[in-house]
Amino acid sequence: VRQRAMFDHLVLPEDAEGNVVSGFVLLLGKEYALRIARPPGCSNMAAARVTCDAELKLLLQDYGELLQQRLAQSATVADFLRELTTIAERALRTQSQAPDPLPSSLCSTLYREIALVGWDKLAGVNSTLTQVELQCPDSQGRPHRLRLALSDRYPLAAPKCTVFLPIPFEFAWPAQGGDLRLVYDQFRRYLAGFEDFWSELQEIDSRCWVLEPASKALDIPMRRVVIAPNVSILINIATSHPRSFPDCRLLGPDAAVRPLREKLNASATQWDGSLPLVANLERALDLTFPSPKTSELENFNCECGVCFTYELGEAIPNKVCENAKCGRAFHTACIMEWLRALPSTRQSFGTLFGECPYCGKALSVKALG
């Protein structure tokens, strides 16, 4: 879907049905990544889940209810993207208006509170002292940021808090007012609940070829991992029980994916929650994930067969030739342009029907409306 006006957005489907799309919105010349996943069979956007990069998430943090309302009212992805970009532009205009600095008495209070937390925990502060960013390492030394926005009613009014965690952080604030250390201590305790989850994520990141997310961010509970040339598995890890049987989706030619799917489904009852997630998946699939220590990513034909790159903006090759002997992957946008250029290609109801550029097997691509 591409819209040109005061903004651009480009999203491409990750599946044949168009239930999952990823791409970017362009606001004031800057790209912000996002991904929208709609449950299979859902005719509208009400149950869709939207994830985005940390910067866009921060920009829209005060518009959650409005975005949820617009999501429920949208019939298509394109409808929601128009609503989202309108809201994001409003947020950018509001953000450009610098807040008034805190009164001098509150500045003194803020200095004392930072000293109580520890000046070594201070990661940053803006020129008006209305935003403070604190750093808090967990027990394994992984750094985490706590961003606090203060109003002129602080400390009676609780600060607005932004964190980059898989689940929102909520904290208690006394009616008579609180301080920075109160929030910081609650944040530190909250981090402890994710340490097993982060350990599983980091084991995946270190032992496997991770295709998505490119940043390997610890606030994203999803990893797409290479299994074989043009075959991968999308793993959604439970934050509260990271070693439990995960929600998985195998991606690739059906001839290669079908036996793996059967093995995975058969292993559900034999899943051992005491084992690391990677070890359990390898046992269930009866394979060893390719490792960055012993292999090269180029060996798995992950790049697009048309443009010969892996990332196209935020899009990755997600359309795969079903011929098991071929199995080449393509960016949806690339293979669509390729097929459109061929006189033999047919189009029906937004779907292009043509042939794989490599093996000649029938190939269809559904355009996202």
Walk me through the structure:
β16 (346-348) and β17 form a beta hairpin. The model is unreliable at 1-7 (pLDDT under 50). The protein contains 9 helices and 18 strands. A 5-stranded antiparallel beta sheet has the order 1-2-3-4-5. A 4-stranded antiparallel beta sheet has the order 6-7-8-9, with no helix packed on it. It has 369 residues and is α+β, with helices and mostly antiparallel strands.
Number of strands: 18
Q: N-to-C terminal Cα separation, in Å?
A: 6 Å
Helix amount, in percent? 25-40%
Oligomer status: single chain
Main sheet attributes: strand count, strand direction, barrel closure: 5 strands, antiparallel
Give a quick summary of the entry.
This protein has 9 helices and 18 strands. The chain has helices at residues 54-59, 64-73, 77-96, 104-117, 180-192, 195-207, 254-266, 277-285, 332-340, and strands spanning 2-4, 8-13, 20-27, 30-37, 49-52, 122-125, 131-135, 145-149, 160-163, 210-212, 222-228, 231-236, 247-251, 319-320, 329-330, 346-348, 351-355, 362-366. Strand 14 (319-320) and strand 15 (329-330) form a beta hairpin.
